[in-house]
């Protein structure tokens, strides 16, 4: 009976003085501070992820991440997307959910309503495991696959990872109110593994293929016949070139002109190339497609500070392609299709041997020594820079149609036909 009285006194005292649980020196106080810190860290990660998602959805450029930066290579890679959407979107949703769950736990602790067994904990723990695994996964991709780093991404993963570790400590620490028998631990780990599998599978199985169309106030591409030939004016007339001298698909006399800027090492450029081949055949003498290689390779492109793993040797592929054009124009499309055929470009030495089989070793040496190739690549780079600044997007490929620039991969040939119809006036595909 004495024990019952003592118990009643303790409970009564706790009700009268809730500050005991949150006061200095009490275990509950440390838990509150840990959880508040985790909320602040998740909020930081949410803000960063939200900013990246907004920029991606609006096809803009992240502050400090132009084509010369390492983070550009990360944010424009296939690994920046999950099931075709920016990874920052599901990340932001998870972070917001964690903020809500942590805030709910803070409220219960503060009001002395923390249950003996927290029913939310299995889901919380599984989410924490997924967040930490995601931080490891995306950091490893940047380190071992892309060989480039995004400060925004790393800061978000670091903040969320530390926050998740804090929550896990709170769930399994000495003062945890969570019962964690073996069956529960196995279930939580299994849920975490399934979450990680879904995350990685969404990146490996689905490749994003979307484009953003920007219509500019003044004409982006115009042509004019002069005594010297048919001149194509680009970037508001700042760049003027002889259409007949440019690498292209189709006849230079075709009334409708499209210009594509591409990189032989770019996966989205590979997809668009196949669509352009179909479009050129479909519209025959009505359409000429000027194809200008822009290597995203620091060895010949001053806009790129560090070449990503995906774009290695892009300058050499471009030089070989332009050498084919200068030596044997009718074989240029054959070379481009050959490079674009596999998932990744063939080895540089194989590409060189293939070009030699097309034009001959002596002719190739002569063409590669022609300064026209260097000058044309620089012109293409200048055009890419001008377009990217005006469109607010630095992605590849870029398809110029009249006063419109389509940035990024076009998902289907039907989508390409829509662009050609709306911006060049070409008829509907049969």
Estimate the global geometry from the Cα principal axes. elongated
- The proportion of strand residues reads 5-15%
For the CA atoms, what is the radius of gyration?
A: 29 Å
The CATH architecture of the largest domain is: 3-Layer(aba) Sandwich
What is the CA–CA distance across the termini? 93 Å
The DSSP helix count reads: 15
**What is the typical, i.e. mean, pLDDT?**
82
The beta-strand count equals 11
The CATH homologous superfamily name of the largest domain equals Glutaredoxin
Order of helices and strands: HHHHEEHHHHEEEEEEHEHHHHHEEH
Secondary structure category: alpha+beta
pLDDT < 50 runs, ≥5 residues: 1-25, 115-120
Helix content percent band: 55-70%
Question: Which strands sit side by side, in order, in the main sheet?
Answer: 3-11-10-8-9-7
CATH fold group of the largest domain: Glutaredoxin
Which sheet architecture does the biggest sheet show?
6 strands, mixed
| Count of separate structural domains | 2
Instruction: Give the CATH level 1 class of the largest domain.
Output: Alpha Beta
Describe the structure.
The protein is of the alpha+beta class. The protein has two domains: 2-205, VKOR domain (de novo design (two linked rop proteins)), CATH 1.20.1440.130; 211-424, Glutaredoxin (3-Layer(aba) Sandwich). The protein has helices spanning 2-16, 19-22, 27-57, 70-75, 88-110, 121-146, 151-172, 182-205, 267-283, 314-327, 332-340, 348-359, 361-368, 371-391, 413-424, and strands spanning 81-82, 85-86, 211-215, 221-226, 229-234, 239-242, 248-249, 256-262, 287-293, 398-401, 404-408. It has a six-stranded mixed β-sheet, sandwiched between helices. It has a three-stranded antiparallel β-sheet with strand order 4-5-6, with no helix packed on it. The protein has a two-stranded antiparallel sheet with strand order 1-2. The longest helix is centred in the first third of the chain and has 31 residues, at 27-57.
């Amino acid at each position: 009976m004495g024990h019952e009285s003592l118990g009643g006194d303790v409970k009564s005292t706790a009700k009268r003085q809730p500050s005991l649980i949150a006061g200095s020196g009490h275990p509950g106080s440390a838990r509150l501070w840990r959880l508040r810190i985790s909320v602040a860290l998740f909020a930081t990660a949410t803000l960063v992820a939200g900013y990246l998602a907004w920029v991606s959805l609006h096809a803009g450029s992240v502050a400090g991440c132009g084509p010369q930066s390492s983070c550009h290579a990360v944010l424009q890679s296939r690994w920046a997307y999950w099931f075709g959407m920016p990874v920052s979107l599901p990340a932001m949703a998870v972070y917001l959910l964690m903020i809500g769950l942590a805030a709910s736990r803070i409220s219960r602790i503060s009001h002395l309503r923390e249950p003996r067994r927290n029913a939310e904990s299995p889901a919380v723990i599984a989410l924490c495991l997924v967040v930490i695994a995601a931080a490891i996964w995306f950091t490893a991709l940047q380190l071992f696959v892309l060989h480039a780093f995004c400060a925004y991404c790393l800061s978000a993963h670091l903040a969320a990872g530390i926050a998740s570790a804090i929550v896990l400590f709170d769930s399994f620490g000495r003062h945890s109110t969570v019962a964690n028998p073996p069956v529960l631990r196995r279930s939580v780990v299994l849920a975490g593994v399934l979450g990680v599998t879904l995350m990685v599978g969404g990146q490996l199985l689905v490749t994003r293929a979307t484009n953003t169309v920007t219509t500019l106030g003044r004409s982006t591409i115009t042509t004019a016949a002069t005594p010297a030939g048919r001149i194509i004016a680009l970037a508001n007339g700042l760049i003027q070139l002889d259409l007949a001298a440019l690498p292209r698909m189709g006849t230079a006399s075709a009334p409708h002109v499209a210009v594509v800027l591409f990189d032989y090492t770019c996966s989205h450029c590979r997809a668009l190339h196949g669509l352009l081949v179909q479009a050129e055949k479909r519209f025959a003498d009505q359409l000429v497609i000027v194809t200008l290689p822009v290597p995203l390779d620091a060895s010949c492109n001053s806009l790129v500070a560090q070449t990503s793993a995906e774009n290695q040797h892009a300058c050499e592929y471009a030089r070989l392609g332009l050498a084919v054009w200068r030596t044997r124009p009718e074989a240029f499309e054959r070379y481009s299709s050959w490079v674009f055929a596999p998932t990744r470009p063939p080895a540089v030495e194989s590409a060189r041997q293939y070009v030699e089989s097309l034009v001959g070793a002596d002719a190739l040496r002569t063409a590669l020594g022609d300064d026209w190739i260097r000058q044309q690549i620089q012109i293409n780079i200048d055009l890419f820079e001008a377009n990217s600044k005006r469109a607010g997007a630095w992605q590849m490929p870029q398809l110029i149609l009249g006063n419109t620039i389509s940035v990024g991969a076009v998902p289907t040939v039907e989508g390409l036909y829509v662009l050609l119809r709306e911006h060049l006036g070409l008829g509907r595909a049969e």
